[in-house]
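A further point concerns the way the authors explain their paired sequence and structure data. Since the whole study asks how a given chain folds, the encoding of that fold should be made plain. A single example would do more here than another paragraph of explanation. An entry of this sort, consisting of the sequence and the corresponding backbone structure tokens, reads as follows:

_____
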Amino acid sequence: MTGPFRYTSPEPPEAATGVVADVYAQLATDFGIDRATTFVVLSAAPPLLASTWAVMRESLLAGQASRTGKEVVAAGVSLANRCPFCVTAHTVLLHATGDHALAERIARGEQPEDSRNRQLLAWDKDMSTPQPFPSGEAPEYIGTALAFHFINRIVSSLLTEEMLPGGAEKYRLVRSVAGRSLARTVRRELVPGESLALLETEGAAPVWAADTPIGTAFGALRAAAHLGAGLLSDEDAALVRASVAAWDGVAPLPLHGEELPARAERPGARLALLAARAPYRITDEDVAAWLAPPFTDHCLVHLIAFGAICAVERIEATLTARTEEHA
């Protein structure tokens, strides 16, 4: 294990070239964190890196909806997915918006005092329920939620739980100071669509995204993530898809022993399924059973992304069902 990276050894950001360097440059300007490990861990697969960044930028960072509200959604999804790293990150970013009390209430797992934020947290847990935001803001809120259902799974699978060296993020003062350092960047108004030039894959935009850059970015992410299915046999890829399809897309992700492929017999299917349904349960032994030549960091990132996108699409389907029900 190297620093925050559990199973991969990304190139140092200063050595990046091409689209990876371009993503890092835009990250530094628009996100305010030029070496965010959430994205560095994807650098072995540039199309995944670019599309993950684009979905997050266009939904969470750009647009007209409240940044505070979208950070509440990102934090709530991260809580639901048991991703401490991402919960801390969005606690810090809530501090950056200036709502310090809200940041700490969510970090403690408490309900916000404001009814709108309580509604957003409730929606995070069950996206088939009525949407607590105007229809015109739906692409931003839905895009944010789905982006972090994907990102949480990448982070839980491939990074340690500590956001800062030595676990310094456990201190409220550290979280608050870190947030204040990002306040100016968080309050900037970004031009929508500027990440799209970085994309290296194309896919159909979802209906919920309407005609927005979020849809283009999400289509690209879907296409890039599904490339990971090619690392599995047809039988194993079908097993992963079927297992995720059997989940309701709402309840916490149960995964019983009899549902999990044996590590020695089907290690790739096991890894992808864990990434989809319980990424925090991935062990060193699970990765070691699969990650051997000819497989590389590039392959591991793509395999985890395949499991993650299967879960995201199942959650997305609950939205589609809700929309059709009320059409």
Summary: The mean pLDDT is 90.
